[in-house]
Specification:
Layout: H1 6-16, H2 24-31, H3 40-52, E1 57-59, E2 67-69, E3 76-80, E4 86-89, H4 96-103, E5 115-118, H5 121-151
Parallel strand pairs: 3-5
Antiparallel strand pairs: 1-2, 3-4
Helix pairs in contact: 1-3, 2-3
Length: 152
């Protein structure tokens, strides 16, 4: 039987209240407000235990530190190549890919992991804004150059 821990419960509740998949460092900084003596090592140990117990998910993106998710139900993730944000992707299940994979594999397929990549809405908006601002600068520059050429 596992002994109750307020710190572990706080970590789990923190993750359940978020959908941005924070790093251990973000969790640590947030919990220090309520637990000033908590160490980063304690946060990592509790994250490992909660993952082992199946109460949270550890997400390795291949870039940067692991991220953590309080939602253990099957779902998919999207990672923005612009800002690095990691978010839940609301969509229908792709369970049928297990059957497709099983058809081509002589072993037993019992699950899958799918990550989607691209640019998030905020990055696209920023890019459009930057592009529009650049067009304005180029338009102004072209007009000035044109005026200079006409004045000569």
């Amino acid at each position: 039987m596992l002994k109750y821990s307020r710190q572990r419960e706080s970590i789990k509740n923190f993750l359940m209240s978020r959908c941005d998949h924070p790093t251990a460092e973000v969790i640590y900084r947030s919990l220090r407000k309520d637990f000033p003596n908590i160490s980063l090592g304690t946060v990592y140990r509790n994250l490992a235990l909660l993952t082992e117990l199946g109460e949270i998910q550890t997400i390795s993106t291949g870039e940067g530190p692991d991220r953590f998710d309080g939602n253990v139900a099957p779902h998919y993730h999207f990672q923005c190549r612009g800002c690095g944000a990691l978010m839940d992707l609301q969509m229908q299940s792709l369970e049928h890919i297990n059957l497709l994979a099983q058809h081509e594999f002589s072993g037993e397929i019992d699950g899958h992991s799918v990550f989607f990549y691209g640019r998030c809405r905020d990055c696209i908006s920023r890019e459009k804004l930057d592009t529009n601002q650049m067009r304005k600068v180029i338009d102004r520059t072209d007009k000035k150059c044109y005026k200079i050429r006409n004045d000569s």
